[in-house]
User: Which sequence fits this backbone?
């Protein structure tokens, strides 16, 4: 069940504005019901996260409550999979949270059912400092149904202690290709006598093929909410891991177990793999868990393919339920999450880079070396000409599940990458917008 605490979160998004736009098609009522007159108002705030995020969020919420006498916040947090289930149950039961995290995969569905409020309808929410490109990721027909909780990217982390001991040079991440990464991974495995595998990333998560598709000039999801990735790209994504495994750079089938998702539980921290793909706002956690000599790199292929694969997709957004009993107060909380410097000083980069550039600038002196490095990477990447990214269509959860399912079949050799790609397109297209 959801863990209940007294805590919200502060937001961070993009500090530049080179992040590309993505609309979110939605509908929904703007203001919700009339706020209660007089007395204290209790808001229900629900978000995705773990106990560490909850601790930081709790500290921010206390600041919000101090600044807004008469408003108290009851917060609940939950891990990813269970969070989606709990949220669906709450909305189906007619008891939605006032302020909540909404995932890219499901925002369109909720919005089209009229369950989310138009954030532009609230004078309490100041959007002046939020770049238009960020706002567009939650917009449809001029209405705004979600604001990114922060800007984040995926990146490669390499345990330099392992590569130094093995005598392997880490390639230049501003010029390396996917072929360079494969050679690097195989060399690590070979020079450690098979004690450490060079690569240990997750083939089953869609962030990888989404980035690869963009690099190849394709949109994984298109502007008109369809699946745009080609069968060839999905086949090559699967084939890459098969070839890497055959070359010894990737662990054998069955190597990875369900050990949890924290950096401390990772194979990078265990020292059994030398590199891993991560959301880069988690860099600090991985560096600390793996001994403090972890290097943060851009993804391979960013300068060797047709275009950049990066687009700073937010994994989650902030939304207000259309049926919130306290819409005005809910709007004050959401405004706090994106614009309040004091709140952001407690949550820092836990959810990515703040969307308000002024907030990002204000918290920079409070960041340690690792978080500063990740924020700087986000800023540097946004100087590039990035490809657009669009709202996930309805059925995106099925697409993600299908990729996961087929990745396992490919891993154990039960299905070829070519057949898996064909099946992926068939099943995904059948689920999209249904």
Assistant:
């Amino acid at each position: 069940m959801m863990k209940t605490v007294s805590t919200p979160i502060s937001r961070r998004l993009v500090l530049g504005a080179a992040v590309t736009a993505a609309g979110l098609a939605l509908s929904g009522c703007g203001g919700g019901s009339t706020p209660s007159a007089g007395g204290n108002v209790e808001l229900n705030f629900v978000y995705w996260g773990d106990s560490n995020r909850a601790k930081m969020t709790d500290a921010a919420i206390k600041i919000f409550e101090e600044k807004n006498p008469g408003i108290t916040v009851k917060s609940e947090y939950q891990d990813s999979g269970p969070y989606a289930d709990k949220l669906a149950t709450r909305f189906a039961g007619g008891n939605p949270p006032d302020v909540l995290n909404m995932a890219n995969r499901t925002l369109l569905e909720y919005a089209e059912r009229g369950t989310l409020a138009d954030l532009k309808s609230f004078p309490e929410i100041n959007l002046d400092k939020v770049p238009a490109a960020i706002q567009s990721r939650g917009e449809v027909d001029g209405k705004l149904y979600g604001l990114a909780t922060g800007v984040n990217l995926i990146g490669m982390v390499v345990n330099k202690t392992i590569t130094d001991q093995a005598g392997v040079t880490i390639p230049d991440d501003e010029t390396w290709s996917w072929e360079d990464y494969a050679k690097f991974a195989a060399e690590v495995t070979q020079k450690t006598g098979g004690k450490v595998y060079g690569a240990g990333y997750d083939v089953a998560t869609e962030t990888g093929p989404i980035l690869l598709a963009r690099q190849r000039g394709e949109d994984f999801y298109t502007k008109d909410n369809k699946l745009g990735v080609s069968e060839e790209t999905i086949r090559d994504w699967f084939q890459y891991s098969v070839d890497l495994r055959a070359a010894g750079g990737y662990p054998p089938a069955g190597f990875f177990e369900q050990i949890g998702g924290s950096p401390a539980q990772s194979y990078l921290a265990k020292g059994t793999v030398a590199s891993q793909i991560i959301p880069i706002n988690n860099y600090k956690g991985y560096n600390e868990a793996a001994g403090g000599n972890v290097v943060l790199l851009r993804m391979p292929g960013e300068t060797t393919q047709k275009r950049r694969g990066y687009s700073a997709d937010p994994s989650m957004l902030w939304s207000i339920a259309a049926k919130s009993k306290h819409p005005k107060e809910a709007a004050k909380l959401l405004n706090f999450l994106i614009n309040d410097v004091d709140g952001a000083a407690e949550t820092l980069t836990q959810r990515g880079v703040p969307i308000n550039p002024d907030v990002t600038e204000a918290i920079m002196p409070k960041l340690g070396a690792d978080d500063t490095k990740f924020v700087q990477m986000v800023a540097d990447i946004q100087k590039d000409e990035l490809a657009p990214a669009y709202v996930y269509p309805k059925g995106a959860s099925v697409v993600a599940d299908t990729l996961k399912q087929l990745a396992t079949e490919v891993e154990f050799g039960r299905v070829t990458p070519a057949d898996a790609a064909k099946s992926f397109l068939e099943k995904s297209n059948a689920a999209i917008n249904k």
About this structure: The longest strand covers residues 41-48. The domain at 3-150+315-375 is CATH 3.40.190.10 (D-Maltodextrin-Binding Protein; domain 2). The longest helix spans residues 51-67.
